[in-house]
Amino acid sequence: MIKSELVQKLADENPNLFHRDIERIVSIVFQEIENALARGERVELRGFGAFSVKRRPARIGRNPRSGEPVHIAEKYAPFFKAGKELRDRLNRRAPAAS
Fold first, then answer.
1. By Cβ atoms counted within 10 A, which residue in 35, 39, 49, 80 is the most buried?
2. pTM for this entry
3. Residue 72 belongs to a domain with what CATH number?
C-alpha cells in the first residue's frame, strides 16, 4: 500500500472528513515519525511495531571489481521491529480447506 492508497482508504471509511484533511493528517503523522527518528528517538505504535535508528559504524570494505580496500563512512539506518500483535496476526494459520 502506498501513501495515496492509505489516504483513499481512510477517506472511504470516514466520509464525514474532507479528503484534503485526511491527506494532511497522514502527512503530519509521517513527518513527526521522521522528525523523531532524525533526533535519534524511538517511535512505538502499540500493537503495530517500533521504529528506531541503528548506527552502522565506519568500516573498510572491498571494491568488488578491483579488490582494493575502500573506506565506508559511518551511517545511520532506520529500523522497524514488528509488534507482537502484528507478528501474531501475520503468523496465524489459515483454516484448513474441506
1. 49
2. 0.76
3. 4.10.520.10
